[in-house]
Amino acid sequence: SQKIEQNSEALNIQEGKTATLTCNYTNYSPAYLQWYRQDPGRGPVFLLLIRENEKEKRKERLKVTFDTTLKQSLFHITASQPADSATYLCAIPTGGSQGNLIFGKGTKLSVKP
Amino acid sequence: DSGVTQTPKHLITATGQRVTLRCSPRSGDLSVYWYQQSLDQGLQFLIQYYNGEERAKGNILERFSAQQFPDLHSELNLSSLELGDSALYFCASSPLGGSDGEQYFGPGTRLTVT
Asked: What is the CA radius of gyration of chain A?
């Protein structure tokens, strides 16, 4: 069955630096991959979706890449700010067209001033 | 604010009991998803309903059941509760039934089983 892994449980960086988070999956390449942000005690919030035929996608200070050869997605936050501190989850569809998602366990990002 | 509402916000109950969690999707969204999030397991998909019909099942225990009503709100019923059922339960909604749509999550219900 499809598995998804976010290698780092936690990432600490200095304000202004670029944060890079990794998401790896096994088995087949998903048709798309999503990234969500989750603050403590709150529901995840959708950030970006990248499709298998897209190498890169950007939204303001966020950039996502999708490498189907490496079975990996990278999520970058440039010019990071303390307000970016949160847990970031990646998610891929389970297969089929139902849109059900498998979520990684997340990477907790802390941006220090 | 995602537009998805969940009640109650917190629930404390004893083992063996039964509880009902309620979710109202965003206006116009036809799909509702239920997830369980615990510290060790992460966010786990339980079940999806689309326009009143069950669309997909994930890791949902037989003690758990759900339904979606004609007005599209959904309820998740948890019975014979065990300590291990303590978790955050989220519902999410999306406009359509499948494929590559983002999901809008509610604020969650924190269930504590004592």
From this structure: 14
